[in-house]
Design goal:
Number of strands: 13
Strand content: 25-35%
CATH class: Alpha Beta
Distance between the termini: 82 Å
Number of helices: 6
Order of helices and strands: HEEEEEHEHHEHEEEEEEH
Strand order of the largest sheet: 2-1-13-12-11-8-9-10
Number of domains: 1
Helix content: 10-25%
């Protein structure tokens, strides 16, 4: 075959290849591109709605149906500057107040102020978060020798540290926000035969059972124990966002639902936003 013939064939091949490439379809044009939605708050929350601040409110004695206002540190003696109980004429405790990071007093229910960092499908995610992210630290270490300081759930989440009640408040507030019946329990506990010391933990009520959640647990969770299997916890009081219970039976109990638990107080927040928050949480479930 002559060289000129080969050259003509080569040119034809190049032309055909280019022609085929021109026939390839182009990517479709985006006529109406979809914009990414930017998350927006449900409403603008004023500064006094800041969830790092406990809820302010009054405590109601369910026996006498009377309300009690909080007392501030300047009104209290030396023994009560970190916290105090409120009793009725029967000497029954119906409210408990503790000192916040601001050095102001709030009823303990107010520390459960509706903080839910993010939605999760199950509580294992929350337990793992507390186990791996939250550092246990005594109050007197983190707050310049103040012996007792309570943090809200959001404060503990932001600071990534806290002691037993701070862990328990974050765990309970998160669970309550997801629709669980969770309560913070205050009492004493012991480990390895030691003398019981002041402690706080969470009890979860679910499908007729009570589960004890040790919020300061830093080892891996393999199961959530029934409260009835945890005899080294000695409960005295428990509370959620709005109610306060007193253990009128023995502190040796492992039953958190029996008749010896007396609902003695109710917390009434001053600010209506928190009621709206609870309504939004319930409507989203």
């Amino acid at each position: 075959m002559k060289t000129s013939t080969l050259f003509i064939i080569f040119v034809l091949i190049i032309f055909l290849v280019r022609f085929e490439r021109k026939k390839e379809p182009l990517p479709p044009l985006i006529v109406n591109p979809v914009e990414v939605d930017t998350p927006k708050p449900v409403q603008n929350i004023a500064r006094h709605y800041d969830l790092e601040v406990p809820k302010a409110g009054e405590a109601e004695d369910l026996v006498r149906k009377q309300h009690t206002k909080i007392k501030q540190v300047s009104q209290l003696g030396e023994n009560a500057r970190y916290g105090y109980f409120v009793t009725n004429y029967n000497q029954q405790i119906f409210a408990y107040a503790k000192s916040a990071t601001s050095n102001e007093m709030y009823f303990v229910n107010g520390y459960l102020n509706g903080f839910v960092p993010y939605k999760v499908d199950n509580m294992w995610v929350i337990l793992q978060y507390l186990q791996t992210r939250l550092k246990y630290q005594l109050d007197e270490v983190g707050y310049n020798d103040r012996k007792e300081v309570w943090q809200t759930a959001k404060e503990s989440y932001v600071k990534l540290r806290g002691d037993c009640e701070d862990h328990a408040l974050l765990l309970a507030d998160w669970l309550i926000g997801l629709g669980y019946d969770a309560r913070v329990v205050v009492g004493t506990a012991k480990s390895s035969g030691k003398t019981p010391v002041g402690h706080a933990w969470v009890v979860l009520f679910n499908e007729g059972n009570e589960y004890l959640l040790e919020a300061t647990k830093k080892s891996k969770w393999n199961a959530i124990p029934l409260a009835s299997t945890q005899p080294n916890y000695f409960p005295k009081y428990m509370f959620n966002r709005t109610e306060f219970w007193v253990n009128e039976g023995t502190i040796l109990t492992t039953n958190y639902a029996d008749e010896k638990w007396k609902k003695s107080g109710k917390f009434i927040p001053h600010n209506p936003y928190y009621k709206d928050l609870e309504n939004m949480a319930s409507s989203s479930q």
